[in-house]
Amino acid sequence: MSSPQNPMPQAAPAWQGTAASPHAGYTSPIPVVRTHLGHALVSEWTKIRSVRSTVWTLGVFVLLVLGIGLLTGVVVSSSSSEMSSADNPLTLGFFGLLLGSICLITLGVLTTASEYGTGMIRTTMTACPSRGRVLAAKALVFFLVAFTTTLVSSVLVAFAQTAMLGGSGVRQPSGAEWLKGTVGVSLYLALLGLLSLVVGSILRHSAGAITIMIGVVLAPLVIALFMFTQSLEKVRTALIDYSIPNQLSVFYSNSLTHSGPSGWDPLWIVLAVTALAFAGAWALLRQRDV
Amino acid sequence: MIELEGLTKRYGDKLAVDGLTFTVRPGTVTGFLGPNGAGKSTTMRMILGLDHPTSGDVRIDGRHYDRLRDPLTAIGALLDAKAVHGGRSARNHLLCLAQSNGIPDGRVEEVLDTVGLTSVARKKAKGFSLGMSQRLGIAGALLGDPRILMFDEPVNGLDPEGIHWIRSLMQSLAAQGRTVFVSSHLMSEMALTAEHLVVIGQGRLLADTSMADFIEQNSRSYVRVRSPQREQLLDVLHGAGITVVEAGGGLLEIDGGKAEHIGELAARHHVVLHELSPRQSSLEEAFMRLTAESVEYHAHADPAEREWAAGWKTEV
User: Mind telling me which residue stretches traverse the membrane in this protein (chain A) (predicted)?
Assistant: First the structure.
């Protein structure tokens, strides 16, 4: 035991601003490292790969994209007359990716919200008090994982489908179609997942955030289906045009309508929405108690 | 060194922490004591920058927590043993913490060994008992070999062997010159580990003193007396100018009195005594008395609590 204490340490302590330790009675042999985003990225990569939910969501995603893609390929190629030579053969990848998007939404939400559910967030924020850095690292790691997984699955499906349909007189897709049907959709879906991650950070509740994101994906289209009134025609068209399934189909030039977004528009829309939500989540994260 | 200055936290109407000013110094174990809901955990969360203070300031070695360049090597904390992702193994949990601060991966095995979790390092944290979770939390706190350690109720859920282990761990950490700040609601636990004591109640500072001084000031020695001729005895004692405190159940307590003196007095007046014993109130009682008073300052104290607090006060 060491020296006796001053019984009543009173009044304002003299703040010592210097890093050199006038107070420290102990110096660790472990070298002091000035932490930066790189450390946070490595840490988040370890986190995302060390939980079962990542394996499950991405596994189901790949299974859906490949399974449904190959099935539709088989069905369509066996009845050759169905696709005209004008159609984009990559279109058949759409169904698997649409269903798979729910997996990416789930993983995105869990990346942030599960830390609030388990209390891990307090440990994370203690280890890295720069909250913006934590959010940025999570976003970057998740985005790269989601983008890579989607890109690999969509390319595989695209190759399989063009090979299957090649014999039945369907044309080969153009270079621009290849780009949109693989890189384009992958960027779109990874950003949709990132938006979910951001919503998870704002709501701090996994089930709530997943429900909201699935609602965002499905509700506009479902609501529009039941808008029969003439006076609501414009609303109905807008809902369909900007519904996420329709925006996704734009990448295959296969839109439900002829108005609304076209070309690369959906990507810019989801990018803008995600950027706004990210800024909001960043501000909230700095302001709120953990 | 942890320095708090007028640290205050308000949740809506409730003042959880009310103008705390004290300093936690290196080289000793400082106990942070208060009943449940006194604001201990909130104070610790503010020290770690998790909660923003409503007013006031807290610094770690002269810096705000979020300005620390190397948070885990500056301060290691165990706030809540269950603050881990249950699906992650103990090793991976510690690994992601180490990586976030650029701590060599080898430290993970070292701290797992220190807390005795090496054999379950690959097991998922959700299967851990509370005691194992506490050990994992302590491993996380030790990861950066920090200058300051902060533990919130670390003995909760530990078995006697574990409690003994954490006590000697804290004392050896302090002996190495580190700052050790540990909270508890058990005075008896603190009496065994801490050299310095900070007591809070209802968010306010009640005592900031060395353990030795606290014991000296607060341990009350008294004589306990029981007699079938109670009224007669009271008259005799009053006659001798001795103040008696009624302790209930027919027991009388005489503060600072000498048993011999009271025995002789009773014999002289032919009063029969069934019990005459010199006693020392425990630190636990001293702590309860200290915090009970803090409850009394508030007019809307719970009736049961008030009655309990009043037990210390009834003078005959």
Answer: 55-78, 90-113, 134-161, 181-203, 210-229, 267-285
